[in-house]
Amino acid sequence: MGDLLNTLPLAAVEGEGHPVTIWGLLIYLTAVFAVIAWFVAGARKGLSKRTFTTKQANWAEQLYLFIENMCVSAIGAHGRKYVPMITTFWLIIFVGNLFSLFAPYAPTADLGFNLGMALVSIGYVQWEGIKSNGLVGHLSHFAGPKLGLAFIPLSLLLFCIELVSEIMKNISLSLRIYANIHGGHEAVTNMNHVGEGAFVPIGAFLLPLKVLTCLIQAMIFCLLTCVYIGLVTSHHGDDHGHDHGDLAHA
Amino acid sequence: MNGNYVGSFGIGYGLAVLGIALGLGLIGYSALQGMARQPEAIGKLQTVMLIALAFVELTFFLTLFLAPNMINVVPK
What we know:
The complex is a heterodimer of chains A (250) and B (76). Chain A is an all-alpha fold. Chain A has helices at residues 2-7, 22-45, 55-75, 83-102, 111-140, 152-194, 207-232. Chain A has one domain (55-232). The radius of gyration of chain A is 22 Å and the shape is globular. Chain B has helices at residues 6-37, 42-66. At the A-B interface, helix 6 and helix 7 of A face helix 2 of B.
């Protein structure tokens, strides 16, 4: 049985230092996409003119309203065009997190996968900033407020600090999800070791907290992406109204 | 990493958790106070409280996962 676990790279065999390979991660990702495809197919089938007929359609409407509310409040009125991307992120992270409750491994419990998602998210923020402000405008966004000529060393220092902060955003975004999901798994494993003598899985009492963590981490990732997009795409021309989202001032 | 560091990890993590627990308690306290004053704002306060919770938890996880990599001083 242990040999089967070694050949099918589905889980890291405990105590042997054999990590999950990329093929194992791809198997889990296929399962995640299968669940998302089932959800979306059920939602499409349940669309109708009066009321939704399937459960998935109702939940999809709730998801859409939640993401749209988050995007519009964080980015402004033009935030609606980012809703598909944020919904994709949310679905992948949420379903990937849910897998950690049932399987010994999950896509979002992999630091590499989370780093990939964070790089895509921050890269998309940079792309949107360059598209809306131009390359020079986007780079001068890092230099802080425009002071006089005598403050150029201060502006250079601010530029370096902002650059490092931007790189830290990748690390914080990826490490947050990895630590919550993988750390939750490790915590449950260790608590189970405590109750091993009496055959009581004490780690099972952490499961409700883990479900809450799954939801919250997906929401936090999407909210932070929205806030970063709102920070770089705030249009200075029509700033008299409420176009700058009210969450972006945080 | 030799045996001299075994105790310091425990104290280090303990201090980190102390700060985090105090921070989380303060977040919960202010959220509950706000909710008690304005019960109609409970939804918004809940959202903001969870956001602040994630940021405070992140510092703990940074300590947990980045601290072992920072050890590069080996006494002779």
